[in-house]
């Protein structure tokens, strides 16, 4: 990495005179003075809402990687704050890259500087994004450019937000294997209905909705037993629309604040898809805020909302009994005989291990099982055939059903111990 100037040194005389090495006003003035000296007069600090550049780190790294001519690191702020990050690219492989903290990033085409600095308080340190520019027009052009870059970054995968004790945590899941729509095992009429509404929403920037004077927002709820393809359906949607996909994992830490934060983020990047997994787990104290947010006149504009649940009986009826929240609810059912045969024969290729008559027997005996359970049966058949050269279909199915029964009843111990417990 090339040598870059550092603005504030812990051991210099100026810093010693400060009561606080990290004095906020001193940092601002230092940055403006440096920008003036090296990039010309007229730089001003612009206030932005706290969430506008909260996820700037990922976007800056993307610009550094794919558009290096757009960005320049012109200085470091503190000499005692890390300048580089050690990150894991994949399992067992790491790389070192410039940190987005403590470095001043300059975008010469807009004459805009973006820097994230640590702010130290009596409670705990936090990071603040600072934006410097010479004019209002340039700052507006830059924000438009930055948000476009963020959208492009988000298209390459699924952006995941998880509510934690420390607030919303953002991560990204790359789509390493494209799931085609043909690979989604659902009733054809149901699948057609869902994908048709998705396509019309994003086709020609929602021209269908404008033509027929329909509010440009849509919400669907997917419900049904686990293991029957709700997640697969969502991943196939992610790979087949040219719009950002945000996956929001609500937890016991979901609050009114995180609800507003999520919708603020997604509305800024609309049109897009927002997936809310396990929506039934929304904390009781946050539900009224969530419902009111869905009712807002503009909070869903340009958003295709997909909610999923394995427990529809826990869903607040108010979610689907009022227009503007979830418009349609679709049951993802256990696979019928046709879908079971399609999965184990065409998708898994079980004919390698079983005769046609054995396959038909398997199709009939797996009634009521989910897609994920069919996958487990296929794995068991493949293992038994590989090691024993024969397959006991009845035993494999019975073992799986017994295991499922124990899991549902939490009844794992067949013969309780009567001995004394001790050391």
Automatic annotation (TrEMBL):
Species annotation: Ornithinibacillus hominis
Domain named AAA+ ATPase: residues: 216-336
InterPro entries according to UniProt: AAA+_ATPase, ATPase_AAA_core, ATPase_AAA_CS, Mitochondrial_chaperone_BCS1, P-loop_NTPase
A Pfam family this chain is assigned to: AAA
Name of the protein in its database record: ATP-binding protein
UniProt KW keywords: ATP-binding, Nucleotide-binding
One example GO MF annotation: ATP hydrolysis activity
UniProt family annotation: Belongs to the AAA ATPase family. BCS1 subfamily.
Tagged with keyword ATP-binding: yes
């Amino acid at each position: 990495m090339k040598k870059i100037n550092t603005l504030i040194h812990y051991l210099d005389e100026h810093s010693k005179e400060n009561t606080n090495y990290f004095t906020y006003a001193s940092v601002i003035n230092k940055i403006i003075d440096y920008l003036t000296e090296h990039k010309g007069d007229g730089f001003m600090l612009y206030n932005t809402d706290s969430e506008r550049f909260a996820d700037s780190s990922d976007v800056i790294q993307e610009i550094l990687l794919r558009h290096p001519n757009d960005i320049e690191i012109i200085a470091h702020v503190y000499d005692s704050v890390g300048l580089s990050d050690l990150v894991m690219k994949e399992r067992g492989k790491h790389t070192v890259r410039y940190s987005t903290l403590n470095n001043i990033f300059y975008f010469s085409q807009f004459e805009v500087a973006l820097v994230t600095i640590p702010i130290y308080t009596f409670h705990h340190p936090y990071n603040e994004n600072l934006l410097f520019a010479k004019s209002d027009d340039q700052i507006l052009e830059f924000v438009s450019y930055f948000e476009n870059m963020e959208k492009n970054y988000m298209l390459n995968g699924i952006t995941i937000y998880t509510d934690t004790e420390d607030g919303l945590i953002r991560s990204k899941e790359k789509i390493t294997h494209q799931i085609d729509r043909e690979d989604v095992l659902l009733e054809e009429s149901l699948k057609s209905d869902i994908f048709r509404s998705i396509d019309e929403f994003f086709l020609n920037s929602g021209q269908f909705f404008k033509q027929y004077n329909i509010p440009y927002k849509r919400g669907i709820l997917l419900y049904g037993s686990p293991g029957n393809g709700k997640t697969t359906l969502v991943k196939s949607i992610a790979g087949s629309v040219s719009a950002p996909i945000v996956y929001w994992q609500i937890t016991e830490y979901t609050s009114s604040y995180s609800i507003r934060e999520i919708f603020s983020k997604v509305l800024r990047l609309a049109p897009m898809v927002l997936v809310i997994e396990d929506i039934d787990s929304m904390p009781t104290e946050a539900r009224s805020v969530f419902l009111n947010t869905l009712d807002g006149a503009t909070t869903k504009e340009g958003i295709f909302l997909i909610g999923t649940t394995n427990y529809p009986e826990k869903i607040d009826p108010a979610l689907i009994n009022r227009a503007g929240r979830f418009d349609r609810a679709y049951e993802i059912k256990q696979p019928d005989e046709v879908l079971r045969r399609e999965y184990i024969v065409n998708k898994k290729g079980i004919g390698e291990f079983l005769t046609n008559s054995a396959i038909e027997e398997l199709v009939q005996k797996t009634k009521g099982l989910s897609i994920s359970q069919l996958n487990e049966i296929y794995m068991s058949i493949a293992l038994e055939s590989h090691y024993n050269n024969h397959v006991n279909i009845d035993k494999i199915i019975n073992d799986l059903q017994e295991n499922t029964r124990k899991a549902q009843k939490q009844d794992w111990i067949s013969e309780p111990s009567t001995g004394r417990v001790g050391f």
